Predict the 3D structure of the following.
Amino acid sequence: MNELGAVTEDLVGVRVLVVEDDPSIAEQLARGLGRAGCHVTAARTGAEAERHVTDADLILLDLGLPDIDGVALCTQMRARSDAPIIVVTAREAEPDRVSALDAGADDYVSKPFGFAELLARMRAVLRRTGRAEGNVVRHGRLAVDLGARKVEVAGDPVTLTAKEFDILACLLADPTRVVSREEIFDRAWDEHWYGPTKVLDVHMAALRRKLGDSSLIETVYGRGFRLSAS
Ligand code: CA
């Protein structure tokens, strides 16, 4: 598995505005984000960024720009767009980072950053701000809109409860892997679940029934569950 990992599908189609005046960093970002399926628009100045801000689903903002203070730009962009803004700063620039968060940025990464970390932060802000809507993850006959929390099986909509959806999303995050019962509890239940684990079986049975095909989710005896390949 490469550095991008197997869970980048939810960034496919996301329109990212990269505001960065350093050409080598901008190019590296554009290449990596392109591989993750994002549509990248590059802006080297605040003025260019202002032109594209309303077309972006997510903004990566370098604070050190030639024509405008990055924090001021952050405020201006926030006034025109509610797209999540991730600030990209030098590690030592903590006051700027704090000001940027105050100015409406959603998160920050410090240079130099790992690409996997950046993608993870992008996914997280998109989830938090509900902008992941429209990013449909497909697996076999399943199509799951993680933002809108809608599920289709072979094109037919299926209505799930919140818990059933969370369990399905948990399996879908890495569809080739067996996910243990403990992991599903950790991720689909808010806190660690100290009650009877039978509750998972009840939700799982309902989920399988609603998906209309119990073979869509395999039970791997003694290990957990996995989405079937079909
Ligand atoms: Ca810069």
User: Anything to note?
Assistant: The chain has two domains: 9-128, 136-227. Residues 21-22, 62, 64-65 surround calcium ion (CB under 6 Å). The two ends are 22 Å apart (CA to CA). Residues 9-128 form a domain with the Rossmann fold fold (CATH 3.40.50.2300).
